[in-house]
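Consider the following input, taken from an annotated entry for ATP-grasp domain-containing protein (Streptomyces cupreus).
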Amino acid sequence: MTPERCLLLVGATDETVAKAKELGLDVLLLQHPTKVNTDQQRLADHVEVVDYTRWDLVEPIAERLRDTPGFAAAVSITEPGLENAARINDLFALGGTGHEVTRRLRDKAVMREHLAGLDPDDVHARPLRERADLDAFGERHGYPFIVKPTDATASIGVHRLDGPADADRVWAEVRRLAGTRTDRVSTLLLLQDFLMEEYLDGPEYSVESFSSAGRHVVIAVTEKFTDPAHFAELGHAVPARLGAAVEERVRGAVIAFLDRIGIKDGVCHTEIRIDAHGPRVIESHNRIAGDAITDLVHSVYGIDTVKLALGAPFGLADELPDRPEAHGGAAVRSVVGRPGDIVESVDGVAEAEALDEVLAVRISAKPGETVRPLRDNWDRLGLVAATGEDTTAAIRRGAELIGTVVKVRLKDPDGRPGLAEAAPVSDRTVMSA
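Applying the prediction step yields:
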């Protein structure tokens, strides 16, 4: 291994490790005991099995690997690994986004406090520490408002209060969730603190960007479809159906946000809503998007944000145009079922994956499982990502595939059969004002 071409990956999927190798990099992988597998051990040049969310365990391993065989950069594109990858880069002065900036993005309360110091008119937010805080925030800033964990993902633990009568219910949920783990598969993130935040009323979008030496390129604006009650993500579509003037406002708002938050390099995934005041940032992450959005972006723009994130520290990222050109459309449709139904079988995944217009099929539902009420992203049964001649056609095609090709068969408590469906999404016309 050559230190100058050696990457220390803090957490990764099989795809991430494979793409790092495709770039010609030597890969040292820190992988969580619940995530490691034989494919990663085969692909990576060296694997350390460790709870990479714990700095007390990561620091001595990083110091040892820095000595032998050596590495030029630490990178994570998975949420639980971001802070310790930043700490490693700070420890050895390797450049990239440091821990201070990473923490601003990882902790939503820290982000809001930082932004309020720069702009008192930014989204109003306060830490939630006791039941009375809910009443005080509502009286000062009005209803509705949002309560959410400061450092979770996948819409877990997000609640909307429409009036004082909701406070007891939400406080009970906060107390129930505090101290629990967010990822039902590997429990990497711990819910601890909660934030109260002004509700932004308007359509939601995400923005995929890449920064290099302080130059920010908005690669794609993605239309997001969310459950109105708990904000679980029900679908995504690229490119977002925005008029040129609105898209330019979104682009300007996100670039200004990245400057204020201190991002200089790397990929970011920023979530916004467009309300009466224009585009406003909900939250942001210095990593790639989830939910197969990277597949949508690659299909429509020809830009692989995973390889951008991995290759940039080694000078392997081509300079991007200010406004990448879209070719066609692509969309993710989530698979959902009736709460209480039992999953009987899953069929058609291989058949769907063989279709030219299909980008990804990810079905998490397993036979024998009970369909849960839709509270967050983990309650969905899966997703299908497909292309189309434009955004609207891709949204429609994704829904057609669910139930006709990809079939998640269900039965209700009385034994009556059924099929999972594509989660309904709202019809949107091009936003031009």
